[in-house]
Amino acid sequence: MKVVILPNDQLVAHYGANIIKRQLADEPRSVLGLATGSTPLMLYQLLVEQYQLGELSFRGVTTFNLDEYLGLSGDHPQSYRYFMDRNLFDHIDIDTAKTFVPDGAMARPQAAAQEYEHNIKVSGGIDVQLLGIGVNGHIGFNEPWSSLGSRTRVKTLTARTIADNARFFADDEYQPHLSITMGIGTILEAKNIVLLATGKSKATAVKNTVEGPITAGCPASSLQLHPSTTVIVDEAAASALDDPEFFKHIERENQMLLARNDL
Ligand code: GLP
Questions:
Q1: Torsion of Cα atoms, 139 then 142 then 147 then 151, to 10°
Q2: Distance (Å, rounded) from C-alpha 163 to C-alpha 54?
Q3: pLDDT single digits (tens) 54-108
Q4: Is the C-beta atom of 84 inside 6 A of ligand 1?
Q5: How far is the CA of 196 from the centre of ligand 1 (A)?
Q6: Residue 67 annotated to the active site
Q7: Is the pTM of this model over 0.85?
Q8: Ligand 1, closest atom to CA 66?
Q9: What is the pLDDT of residues 4-56, one digit of tens each?
Q10: 62-65 sheet: strands from edge to edge
Q11: b/e map of 175-200 (b: 16 or more CB within 10 Å)?
Q12: N or C of the chain: less Cβ packing under 10 Å?
């Protein structure tokens, strides 16, 4: 696991956007796994800006989002489909038929989940999977004690996650307690994983992800088993790590090697 600690959330977004940019330069027909939540918003803005400057095209790209609220259709303002359309897809040259978000309004969600897995497989698998992280260490909507081998399925949200995400819903608005989410096993099959975390509220989750034991109690700790995961955090999110200097040292070394073209 590569851990990159940067001074602020803007630099976190830039670092993440550059990974996507390099991926699309190497393979314009890439398959990207995308995340919602407030953390990746700045990264999406950067991608839109780079597209507008003509530096990036999404014409050949396919995307799969991690999760969706069960019971919300894509035109509901709190649905993740709506979020992705408004914050990214509406502003770039992607073929919308190649943007997949689990369908939260399907009558048979388990069947929809299996179809989602099938579509990922048929696409050739995810090249870069973007992740945020919940305060309790969840990834996608895989809450603590989700099976580390889980596949796309219906998941109940914890009271903590419902409370954390209540800020996006109006007081009298229906907030779903169920979701449809890629499983941890699904996520771990992505060729590369990029997890972004910013702010003090994520510090314990980041510590457990990076330094903790691999446990279903912190679903993101499963990423320790993945061969190519980059965790990009700001100082606040890194503040509970035992030895942040170690990771900063490695990143300085990596940057030196990169500059000399040795990597
Ligand atoms: C939701 C999403 C996750 C996301 C998490 C953190 O629960 N299902 O994919 O990582 O929120 O959100 P935020 O970035 O707003 O803190």
A1: -90
A2: 40
A3: 999 999 999 999 999 999 999 999 999 999 999 999 999 999 999 999 999 988 9
A4: no
A5: 10
A6: yes
A7: yes
A8: 9
A9: 999 999 999 999 999 999 999 999 999 999 999 999 999 999 999 999 999 99
A10: 2-6, 229-234, 192-197, 128-131, 31-34, 62-65, 99-100
A11: bbeebbbbbbbbbbbbbbbbbbbbee
A12: C
What the block records as the tokens of 33 is 């796994």
Within 10 angstroms of residue 43's Cβ, the number of other Cβ atoms is: 27
Query: Atom of ligand 1 at shortest distance to CA of 38?
Result: 15
HEC assignment per residue over 1-43 = CEEEEECCHHHHHHHHHHHHHHHHHHCCCCEEEECCCCCCHHH
**DSSP character at residue 221:** G
Question: Residue 211 catalytic?
Answer: no
Q: Is-catalytic flag, 177?
A: no
- Which residues have C-beta within 8 Å of that of residue 112, sequence separation ≥ 6? 102, 103, 106, 180
Structural contact between residues 110 and 153, judged by C-beta atoms closer than 8 angstroms? yes
Output the CA 162–ligand 1 centroid distance in Å: 11
Cβ-Cβ contacts under 8 Å for 150 (sequence gap 6 or more): 142, 183, 184, 185, 186
Fold of 2-259: Rossmann fold (3.40.50)
Residue located nearest, by CA, to atom 11 of ligand 1: 37
